[in-house]
Design brief:
The structure is a single chain. By secondary structure, the chain is α/β, with parallel strands linked by helices. It has a domain of 159 residues: Rossmann fold (3-Layer(aba) Sandwich). Helices cover 33% and strands 20% of the residues. It is built from nine helices and ten strands. Helix 2 links the parallel strand 1 and strand 2. Helix 7 crosses helix 8. The longest helix is centred in the N-terminal third of the chain and has 21 residues. The radius of gyration is 20 Å and the shape is globular. The two termini are 38 Å apart.
Length: 280
Amino acid sequence: MTKTKRQRKGKPHKRKLPWYLWVAIALGIAGTVVGIRACHFDEPGDSTRSGDFKAAIIDQLHVLDPNQDFIQQATQELEDYGFEVDVFHGEEVTVDLYRKLPTYGYKLIVFRAHSGMLGGEGSPDEGVIGPTFLFTGETYKITGLVWEQVGDQILPAQMTEDYPMVFAVNSAFITKGMQGQFQDTVIIMMGCSSAYQGDMAEAFIQKGASVYTGWSASIGLNYVDQATLRFINNLCTEDMSIAEALTEMVDEVGLDPDYHAHPQYYPDKAGDKAIAELIR
């Protein structure tokens, strides 16, 4: 990932406007606000429907490694618990989706998404020099989202050599770029090194999440799909606490045979709580 910065120069040209144009502008702004609020009810995961809890599966990895069995099983587990589930696939996973996530009222979000850090894969000897980044499925454009790029909240990221670069957001984007606040949301992060530094976990907690789970190092995709399904089952069907569900998951499926990443959760006080307590 490389940084690209663009600056805008020059000064705005000031002119006085007649009073009636100021009135028109004010009315236009008021109308825009009303329109935005009215359109909000058409957004995915709108929390006004039926009073049921909402969950989302963010399947950014679908662009390269689709796993419909994982999506179906995870969806079924969540629905059996009582969640109404929205699934976002591949190119639907945009910066704008991440920006608006807190406004959709989700109580649990599973991120099946690439993550990583500048300068390495997550171990101290590989020269980690930056915050944790969460990948989107949105193709990178140097002229797109300029202010977020200048503010070092998003960068271009590459999943494989033969796939175009995509936008990736960092922990600063979570705290500064996301709209609104999560309301005691459970965050299940499946990406590599998603809990290595702790900055992404801290950002989501600051943004209103009740617990964040992730991985201490790189993780194999086949393994993390299997492990996450077991974790969700332990939480939803077996009604275990976060700490119990992760411990039981490792006992059942072991650690990743290649990278030996450990599952982690934050904050510590969430460890003895089950989903029902965490989403209240």
